[in-house]
Design brief:
The complex is a heterodimer of chains A (733) and B (162).
Chain A (H helix, E strand, L loop, with lengths): L5 H23 L23 E3 L2 E3 L5 E5 L8 H13 L6 E5 L2 H6 L19 H23 L6 E4 L2 E4 L4 E4 H8 L31 H4 L15 E7 L6 E5 L10 E8 L2 E6 L2 H10 L2 E4 L8 H11 L7 E5 L2 H7 L3 E8 L11 E7 L2 E5 L5 H12 L6 E4 L14 H12 L5 E4 L2 H6 L7 E9 L5 E10 L2 H5 L30 E8 L14 H18 L4 H8 L4 H14 L10 E9 L2 E12 L2 E12 L6 H20 L5 E2 L2 E2 L17 E6 L12 H18 L14 E2 L1
Parallel strand pairs in A: 3-4, 8-18, 16-17, 20-21, 24-27, 24-28
Antiparallel strand pairs in A: 1-2, 2-3, 5-6, 6-7, 8-11, 9-12, 10-11, 13-21, 14-19, 15-16, 15-18, 19-20, 22-23, 23-24, 25-26
Chain B lengths: L1 E4 L2 E4 L8 H8 L18 E4 L2 E4 L13 E3 L11 H8 L9 H14 L5 H7 L9 H21 L7
Parallel strand pairs in B: 1-5
Antiparallel strand pairs in B: 1-2, 3-4, 3-5
The chains are: A alpha+beta (733), B alpha+beta (162).
């Protein structure tokens, strides 16, 4: 566990001073929140009076250092990590650091000076660490140069520590806040002239720091997209055809137009109707009462059973989509004396982020603005402009911190809807807000897949051949068809790839990983962990099956396959050691393990469970992660431990099923997710080995379910190949 | 109708069946109380009524009267953070934070009734949904807050304004 000693100290410093401010401002903001009355941060860049040193750094006269954050914060904590990277090279006083969110229109206007704002695929830190550190270093060099010029000394004679610049020979000192005006006029250093610190010398990065974005989450003062309000604003609640791809035939606006607060009932697009009212409560009430006729189309005949049937056909169908290949697996399997075979499946999942989709859009004929969250500001701005039928130059998105997202807001459907409504009611701010039911029906679902695994093993338990046939839905075919390639969906093989960020950790002489694609009408999306989740469940469960078939210890069995994959093996060994794999477990306790490489990081989990009278209890989990570098250990710990909620909810309870073409689950009563009582103890081992940068938000999700399922097998001899557990004769205690 | 919210009597004019949640959010601008499910399952809408945690999304406003003291997250620790908020800040419980006002209201109510809950009691009482996965730190935060409240109790005083 990386539970920090230092954290208390850090909070004591930063939070106490901020708290006074927070409480003071909070009282004033108590009644009506119009616009951004957020007590700190989120001030628009344009409103900052202090000059910027460069795109990343603004220093205020009171020495507050505003670090610009271009990636999106949805709970994963990368906002703080990104600031740590800048601050590390800037050599400022961390206690003085605050943040400022960059808007995509500003980024566009300045030729993408802030780089990509895209925040998915565990990329925030690993995709921007270098230019952020360079930005911090450049700002430090400019501030130092400014002081040196004032003193008329060579900058090389000056040192910086915690925002204080010292001229060594004379002992003179000044501060960043005092020279910032002059610094902004200094020519920025060339990137080639910047030398970044060796990570072993880091003082701010790599250390436990309290999050910069915590306090306003604790007293209700943080304004999320769903909380946003403007004078004259109306609220729109949409309903799209519950059968994806179906059409809106008609609706009877007259039936609800006299209900309290209702302003308009309108067609949003060819599949969506919305009620616009003065409040959400009134709008959703009228929407419920609104008679609507749908043209559901052919898809209304589709069910989970019919999808499963198609996917079963895919298990043996011909396909040319190959993700990984070595030797001749089909031939080796045909000739093998002993073939072990198993079929697995993984159901649809809804993101079920706590904040339902919401965005406020004001359309005017000369410009369109949105206030709300997105994971993809660049694409969101493009979607906004397109729906507004205005050029991007006159559009802007005021990005906001997000109430959970997990990939859902990588799609821009809600932004399009809000804009199409706002365009019909010019000059009036329209807050689009989805009900939980709409959020459940109109998700962008974790794709549905099945998998047939076949392996040839010799008498000594050596795996001679492995064929892993994935069958099912492609996210990219729907979400990014332009990215489809010769291997079909390029992200279908996550965790099973020959090399790179998603590389398979086993060596098998004859290997075939291929994909038979079938794309049901249910719209898929990127769901935290994406395809790594089911691929890892399939393979890590099956490897466990092979170990048991060979009569070998699952760890020892894996070791033989992992000789050429030392980093994969290192995290597995660490998790196994942490759980006490080599010692006898307590009476009634059984263990399971799993490992994978995903999103650039090596991760593993070891689980201890008991099963009593069919009731499964998860007692303890040890998770090991090697992400190369760690920027904020206590937040890596939070991400890794938290991953077990997203990873184990589908294993225990969650599935989205299809009946009459529509998703059956409409709320948390039927789409059940884990709560505190289900949460096992998680011990996190963070073991950065350096030399590469991996992501942290997602990979561990993938090992959660297989580690526990393997432990359940150890306890019961039952191999669960179709989750969730609630559909089996096992229950959860 | 009149309501007593965070120590102040407030008059609102809405349909009788409007849930307290939407009165708070849309009539009074108290948006710290969140909408998560609308069927009293997720707990994001938790407030205190006479000090006891209640889910406000299914509580019609005509079932609440002026004599009942309603406390929202905005009224929990006004001069100073409530010990639960303090604990939450100290160990960085929140991730996205959206469920945390409800979580904090549920926990502060639990601790008012049961100042020293066992792990099992915390697990059975705190049923709020968090999707980021803050549960381990929630558990730790409840225990830290319980310790703080026990030592505050010795010193005397309470944070809640109701």
């Amino acid at each position: 566990m990386n539970k920090p000693e230092a954290q208390t100290h850090a909070n004591g410093g930063v939070n106490l001073s901020r708290r006074g401010f927070l409480k003071g401002s909070g009282a004033a903001a108590g009644a009506f929140v119009f616009g951004f009355s957020v007590p700190f941060s989120q001030s628009a860049l344009a409103q900052s009076d202090s000059p910027e040193v460069n795109a990343w750094v603004v220093v205020q006269p009171d020495e507050t250092v505003l670090i610009r954050i271009a990636r999106q914060e949805m709970g994963q904590g990368s906002l703080t990590g990104l600031a740590q990277l800048v601050a590390e090279e800037l050599e400022c006083d961390w206690e003085n650091v605050d943040f400022d969110l960059v808007k995509p229109g500003q980024n566009r206007e300045r030729d993408n000076v802030w780089g990509s704002q895209f925040t998915a695929g565990s990329t925030a830190i690993r995709g921007s660490h270098e230019y952020l550190r360079q930005g911090g270093a450049a700002a430090r060099m400019m501030l130092t140069e400014a002081a040196a010029r004032q003193w008329q000394v060579p900058a090389g004679e000056c040192n910086v520590s915690e925002g204080v610049i010292t001229h060594e020979p004379s002992g003179r000192t000044t501060t960043y806040g005092a020279v910032v005006g002059a610094a902004s006029d200094i020519e920025p250093p060339k990137t080639e002239s910047i030398t970044l610190k060796d990570p072993k010398d880091w003082r701010i990065a790599g250390k436990d720091k309290a999050r910069l974005d915590t306090l306003d989450k604790l007293d209700g003062s943080l304004v999320y997209g769903a909380d946003y309000s403007m004078p004259g604003m109306l609220v729109a609640v949409p309903k799209a055809c519950p059968v994806h791809g179906g059409k809106l035939k008609s609706f009877d606006a007259k039936a609800v137009k006299d209900m309290p607060g209702v302003k308009q009932v309108l067609r949003v697009d060819d599949e969506t109707v919305a009620v616009v009212a003065d409040t959400f409560w009134r709008a959703q009430k009228a929407l419920k009462a609104l008679p609507i006729e749908w043209d559901e189309g052919e898809n209304a005949k589709v069910s989970s059973d019919s999808i499963a049937e198609k996917l079963r056909e895919g298990l043996t169908a011909d396909t040319s989509f190959v993700g990984n290949q070595a030797g001749d697996a089909k031939d080796a399997l045909a000739k093998a004396e002993r073939v072990i075979e198993a079929d697995y499946s993984y159901p649809y999942q809804n993101h079920a982020q706590m904040e339902t989709l919401a965005a406020t859009v004001r359309w005017r004929k000369n410009g369109c603005e949105m206030w709300g969250p997105t994971q993809v500001p660049g694409a969101a701005l493009a979607a906004l402009a397109e729906a507004a039928e205005l050029p991007q130059e006159v559009c802007e998105i005021h990005t906001m911190r997000i109430g959970g997202s997990f990939g859902r807001r990588a799609a821009t459907d809600y932004i399009r809807q809000a804009t199409l409504i706002a365009r019909q009611i010019p000059d009036t701010p329209i807050k689009l807000m989805w009900t939980r039911e709409e959020d459940m029906r109109q998700g962008r679902f974790h794709p549905v897949t099945q998998c047939r695994l076949r392996a040839a093993m010799d008498d000594e338990g050596h795996v001679q051949a492995l064929h892993m046939r994935l069958s099912g839905q492609s996210i990219m075919a729907y979400a990014m068809p332009q990215a489809m390639g010769d291997n079909g969906d390029p992200v279908a093989y996550q965790g099973l790839e020959p090399e790179g960020d998603m590389a398979l950790g086993y060596s098998v002489p004859n290997l075939l990983v291929d994909h038979a694609m079938h794309n049901p009408h249910i719209r898929p999306g990127f769901w935290r962990g994406v395809n790594l989740n089911q691929n890892t469940l399939y393979l890590e469960s099956f490897i466990d099956e092979l170990a048991h078939a060979a009569g070998q210890d699952p760890l020892a069995f894996r070791r033989k396959l992992m000789a050429k994959h030392p980093k994969h093996l290192a995290v597995l060994e660490a998790a196994a050691e942490g759980i006490g794999w080599d010692s006898k477990p307590p009476e009634g306790i059984y263990r399971g393990i799993a490992q994978v490489k995903g999103f650039g990081s090596y991760v593993a989990a070891a689980a201890e469970v008991s099963v009593t009278d069919g009731k499964v209890k998860m007692h303890r989990i040890v998770a090991a992660t090697d992400p190369g570098h760690v920027i904020n250990p206590q937040q890596v710990e939070a991400q890794v431990a938290g991953s077990f909620v997203y990873g184990l909810s589908p294993m225990l309870y969650s599935e989205a099923t299809v009946k009459d073409g529509r998703i059956e689950q409409e709320n948390f009563n039927t789409y059940k997710v884990m709560t505190l009582k289900d949460m096992p103890k998680v011990e996190v081992i963070t073991m950065p080995s350096g030399g590469f940068w991996g992501g942290v938000g997602e990979p561990t999700i993938a090992v959660a379910a297989p580690a526990v399922l393997n432990a359940i097998f150890a306890a019961t001899g039952k191999r669960i190949r179709n989750i969730p557990l609630k559909n089996t004769d096992l229950t959860v205690s | 109708m009149k309501l007593t919210i965070n120590g102040q009597v407030t008059e609102v004019d809405v349909e009788d069946d409007t849930p307290l949640l939407w009165v708070l959010r849309e009539q009074l601008g108290l948006t710290g109380t969140k909408y998560g499910c609308g069927i009293a399952l997720c707990g994001a809408c938790t407030v205190h009524i006479d000090g006891v945690a209640q889910r406000s999304c299914v509580l019609p406003i005509n079932a609440v009267n002026e004599s009942q003291k309603i406390t929202t997250i905005e009224g929990l620790g006004v001069q100073q953070f409530h010990p639960v908020q303090e604990a939450w800040a100290e160990i960085d419980v929140a991730q996205c934070g959206f469920c945390q006002p409800g979580m904090i209201m549920a926990v502060s109510s639990l601790l008012a009734e049961n100042p020293d809950p066992t792990d099992e009691e915390i697990q059975s009482e705190i049923t709020n949904i968090c999707r980021c996965g803050t549960y381990p730190r929630v558990l730790e935060g409840v225990k830290l807050a319980a310790q703080r409240m026990a030592s505050n109790e010795k010193a005397g005083g309470s944070n809640e304004q109701a």
